[in-house]
Amino acid sequence: MSDPMPDAEPPSTEAVAAPRPSPGAWLHAGIRSTFLLRPALERLGPPTPALVLGLVAAWLLLVVAVERLAIPGDATFYAGAINSGWLATLVLLGLC
Question: What residue segments make up the domains of the chain, in order of their start?
């Protein structure tokens, strides 16, 4: 029996590399989904733990900066407020 496609190349066994995740692409996808638009998830690549940590830290810094603008005059730092309930949840989530 003859080969029906003698010129065909055999299928490649190389894995297709996923695109490298970038914070800007993930932020763009999040902004698109905020406006009920479909984010282009196929271009994002898998999120890494460092990427997720960086995005959470950037969001936290933004929230703290905006909240600081809402306080008139001098602000007093109260260290006990850091452990107001969310820190233990964040630590447990990080341990998973």
Answer: 20-70
